[in-house]
Amino acid sequence: MALRGKDSVGVVFWVVVVVVLCAATAFHGCSAALFKKKSSGSGIGGGSSVVFKLRGNVYPVGYYYAEVYIGNPPKPYYLDIDSGSDLTWLQCDAPCVSCPQVPHPLYKLTRNALVVCTETMCKSLHSPPAYRCDKPTDQCDYEVEYADNGSSLGILVRDIVPIRYSNGTVLGPRLAFGCGYDQHVSKGDVSPTDGVLGLGNGKSTIASQLRSLGLIQNVIGHCMSARGGGYLFFGNELVPSSGIVWSPLSPTTIDKHYSPGPAELFYGRQSTGVKSLPVIFDSGSSYTYFNRQAYQVFLSLVKKGLAGKPLNVAADKTLSICWKGAKPFRSVLDVKQYFTPVTLSFANKKSQLEIPPENYLIISSLGNVCLGILNGTEIGLENMNLIGDISLQNQLVIYDNEKQRIGWIRADCSRLPKSGTISL
Ligand SMILES: *[C@@H]1O[C@H](CO)[C@@H](O)[C@H](O)[C@H]1NC(C)=O
Ligand SMILES: *[C@@H]1O[C@H](CO)[C@@H](O)[C@H](O)[C@H]1NC(C)=O
Ligand SMILES: *[C@@H]1O[C@H](CO)[C@@H](O)[C@H](O)[C@H]1NC(C)=O
């Protein structure tokens, strides 16, 4: 299905728009105004950042999402944050073929300019292979498919995205994103979100576009609280000056994914003998996935560790493997003593990501404890290992696309960073 027709672009007074927006919301898009004014550093977007509050959790919601205002008048949309993909898109009535019911209005296509196929934005999204562009006025179609087999099909459009920067300035640049008119969510899933906020390292992300406009550095951070919620930022201002474990992004980065290179797997202090694991950080995945080999080894070590412990396998379909105790558990803290931390070690132990039990276990609605590290080979990830939300909780994770590195530090993600520093 093709969607044709050029929309006229209205003259838009974004300043007015933004004032209304910020008055109407206590936090979103305006939160950065609470930050102390800080003198801008030198260079592009020196000291500027943008902060979004996150909602959601790993279980039962299964998503962390940001509320982003788009359009004129601006409307709020809930966008699933996904460091595993680039394109930002929202459900759009163009007309929408299979949009799931969401609490928000569908994005209206009218009065928004189409991105044409000759634009860099279109080319970067499609390369390789090169996108067929017959006439320079042709629309730019897109199709994204995710690892869970969810997908979105639509066209690229450009509209105002009003944002307040940490220095207090409010700007509403016109940014490109996808207007999705044919969505499929993976089976049995009801998405609470209106679309996806792509945080990948390609040229088509919102952060990369803001960078091209000279507004921020292309640095993205997210902090997902284990209690739900958290925050997301673009720009380098909120990056703590010390304590971060940095790892260079792998030059062989699989497609456009954030990978600190191959990892060795440790269980407790013990090496498992599993090495050279290709790992990517993926905030778009609720759970962590190990490949067949790593999963097998991990699972047998977990089972061994549970021998003689008061846990029994439960008939609970929440995740692949769940255990029940003498009485229902209320928190992961009730059971964490029966499990051992897992560590992924990158670049010869120069940087390590510790995954304590609370970062790989959930308590199901039935009060059982379930393993949140799953078998990736089973869902077609082949050799790939994904570090998902469950293992990124209570970590500030920073994707520094300027310096081609990825960093992480334990943090209390339920507290917003103040005055440019993260309170731990
Ligand atoms: C604040 O930051 C924005 C984005 O980087 C920049 O465009 C603007 O000029 C800055 N304003 C001031 C007053 O420094
Ligand atoms: C993981 O999935 C693969 C593919 O379905 C399967 O062959 C393997 O046995 C699974 N591993 C475990 C430990 O269940
Ligand atoms: C996605 O589809 C592929 C191929 O049909 C299948 O092997 C895989 O299990 C599916 N993944 C999920 C998460 O359903």
UniProtKB/TrEMBL annotation:
Biological process according to GO: proteolysis
Transmembrane segments: 12-35
Domain Peptidase A1 per the UniProt entry, residue ranges: 64-409
Family matches, as Gene3D superfamilies: Acid Proteases
A GO molecular function held by the record: aspartic-type endopeptidase activity
Keywords tagged on the record: Aspartyl protease, Hydrolase, Membrane, Protease, Repeat, Signal, Transmembrane, Transmembrane helix
The keyword Ion transport is assigned to this record: no
InterPro entries, alphabetized: Aspartic_peptidase_A1, Nucellin, PEPTIDASE_A1, Peptidase_aspartic_dom_sf, TAXi_C, TAXi_N
Family membership noted in the UniProt record: Belongs to the peptidase A1 family.
Location of the active site: D82, D282
Organism for this UniProt entry: Stephania yunnanensis
Name of the featured protein: Aspartic proteinase Asp1
